[in-house]
Design a protein that fits this description.
alpha/beta, about 40% helix, two-stranded parallel sheet, about 350 residues, 12 helices
Length: about 350
């Protein structure tokens, strides 16, 4: 299934050590929300696609070389910033095989919500000596519970890397300019996010597309003299600008909810050397034809000095930094908008008690 439920402490834990080293204000490891739902692509995947008929699965070494227990299906050497799979458009990544699109992830989530409603309904019925509760009451209990939960949605990268910029498999670059494509994606994304809100999401983190033109795979194809592939980064920027506008629109139109934007593009725009990285244009492992580490190869030993693990995905070292900056924008206010995750987690929304 393309979702996970876990306390916020998971996100905090993967960044705690580095957080203690980099700034004096440490993050409290106590769970601040009762559950954490994650929707996204391979940047957040924790192995949901291990059972899919797909080339995009990494449940083999050297993936997970720094993860307790070894390879899990995470697309990195250790831990991701947050631990799921695919794109806004259903066809994104189809050349790799089976995938779990955002629409499919939403269907999975709806099933999960019904299970949560049944569990909470049984607990409430037992507490008040009811044999059963009306379905409306169970739905209210579920939505009250879900309003306290944190949702992270990170989509869009695959719609460019594994769609728009793969003309040999997809015709979107022939149908749309990058501006038009960004508009089309955001229009579809908007409907998906609103559906998530309809299902009960109230604290929602929307992760922007990063510097997709600076991945080792993109650079290896040629940059025309630039450090990165500028047209890919421009496309990502056009998408992100509209995503920020969508955040404003959602916060204006949907009451009793808060949507925030994580500026992955900004986080990747600084000097890697300032964060201790020495290699940013190639991955830590030798990659195959789809940009993933070759099976059972020996990766670099100085992994904390590499920005990228394979042809597309960051190392755990970079994921740790991104987790810190997403949780608290004290280091750089431009990292999040209009607030960071630490403030989002503390928000409380009013709910009327259902009579029964």
């Amino acid at each position: 299934m393309a979702f996970q439920v876990k306390p916020l402490a998971v996100v905090i834990a993967l960044s705690w050590v580095l957080s203690m080293q980099q700034h004096s204000s440490s993050v409290n490891g106590k769970p601040q929300v009762p559950c954490f739902f994650i929707f996204g692509d391979s940047l957040a995947d924790s192995g949901n696609n291990n059972l899919l008929d797909s080339l995009a699965k990494v449940n083999y070494t050297p993936y997970g070389i720094d993860f307790p227990g070894g390879a899990t299906g995470r697309f990195t050497n250790g831990r991701t910033t947050i631990d799921v799979l695919s794109g806004i458009r259903k066809e994104s990544g189809r050349q790799l095989g089976a995938r779990i699109s955002m629409d499919r992830q939403l269907k999975n989530h709806k099933i999960t919500i019904s299970r949560i409603a049944d569990i909470l309904g049984k607990k409430r019925a037992k507490k008040h000596v009811h044999k059963s509760l009306h379905s409306g009451v169970k739905k209210w209990l579920a939505k009250k519970y879900l309003s306290k939960c944190l949702y992270s949605v990170g989509m869009g990268s695959n719609d460019y890397i594994n769609n728009y910029f793969l003309p040999q498999y997809h015709d979107t670059s022939k149908k749309f300019t990058t501006e038009q494509y960004a508009e089309a994606l955001i229009k579809q994304y908007s409907q998906q996010i609103k559906k998530l809100h309809k299902y009960g999401a109230r604290k929602v983190v929307l992760v922007g597309v990063g510097l997709i033109g600076c991945t080792p795979t993109a650079i290896s194809a040629g940059t025309n003299g630039s450090a990165c592939v500028d047209r890919m980064n421009l496309a990502a920027l056009q998408f992100n600008q509209r995503l920020v506008s969508l955040v404003d629109q959602l916060n204006s139109n949907l009451t009793n909810a808060m949507f925030i934007y994580i500026n992955s593009f900004e986080m990747g725009s600084g000097d890697p050397a300032a964060a201790g990285f020495k290699v940013s244009n190639v991955g830590c492992c030798e990659v195959n034809e789809v940009g993933q580490c070759k099976f059972d190869q020996n990766p670099c030993k100085n992994r904390s000095e590499y920005v990228f693990w394979d042809g597309f995905h960051p190392t755990e070292a970079l994921n740790q930094i991104n987790a810190i900056r997403s949780y608290s924008s004290a280091i750089n206010p431009a990292d999040t908008y209009p607030m960071d995750i630490s403030h989002l987690a503390k928000l409380k929304f009013n709910h009327r008690v259902a009579a029964y």
